[in-house]
Amino acid sequence: MAFRNRQSMIQWMQTPGIIPNCPPGLEYLTQINQLLVCQRFDLLEVLGCFATSKKYEVMNNQGHRIYYAEERSNCFLRYLCGPSRPFTMTIYDNVGRDVITMHRTLRSSCCWRNCYVQKLKVEAPPGEKIGYVYQYFHPFLPKFKIKNENKEDVMKIRGPCMLSSCVTDLDFNLLSLDEEIVLGKISKKWAGFMRELFTNADKFGIQFPLDLDVKIKVLMLGASFLIDYMYFEHWP
């Protein structure tokens, strides 16, 4: 597995101790208020040879890796469904344990009023649901709801009206349920003209309060993956 081959080349964030009432593998998130999510550059994708599965590095603001994420999806569906494809995203810690799993089912890419379109289920550890990210209808804006394991609304995410990433960052704000308070944000980082035009190697910054529940931090990470697939993936 690529994770094991590159493990010795990466500087990892120091492993924290056990924290009561914190799902195993999420202890890192208690110490940070920012994440940087970088998709790994894939030459085959640039050359247009293959629709490859996505791989991401999740780092802190000092560039130390916290997690490594790897998409598992059907090759045929990658070609047939493109950015709308179903997948399982497995997230590993510094010793190769799969500590988080995210599942996206195949759903319509068309948005109708009063319906949920795209959905992501998040488990940490794998097999134990901690919540969901649901897209919901708005005629002009990308909007999502973050739900707990009981599918109760916890927070909302609202994106910009214009989704062109030309020479600027794009912010998807984390909001209170009444949408009056901005609690954090997911930012699509401008990567430069050539990289944006020819590759899917996207970069996202995630900001949240230090004392935010680690489960919500993981759901924001999941939302960044879903946003990347929905709005910024190029279809070969």
Helix and strand element order: HEHEEHEEEEEEEEHEH
Strand order of the largest sheet: 1-2-3-4-5-6-7-8-9-10-11-12
User: N-to-C terminal Cα separation, in Å?
Assistant: 25 Å
> Any low-confidence stretches, pLDDT <50, length ≥5?
1-5, 192-200
Number of strands: 12
Beta-strand residue fraction: 25-35%
Characterize the largest beta sheet: strand count, sense, and whether it forms a barrel.
12 strands, antiparallel, barrel
Q: What is the helix fraction of residues, given as a range?
A: 10-25%
- Class by SSE composition: alpha+beta
**What is the CA-atom radius of gyration, in angstroms?**
17 Å
Oligomer status = single chain
Average residue pLDDT: 84
The global form is globular
Number of helices: 5
How is this structure best described in words?
May mediate accelerated ATP-independent bidirectional transbilayer migration of phospholipids upon binding calcium ions that results in a loss of phospholipid asymmetry in the plasma membrane. Helix content is 17%, strand content 33%. The protein is of the alpha+beta class and 236 residues long. It has a 12-stranded antiparallel beta barrel. It is globular. The N terminus is likely disordered.
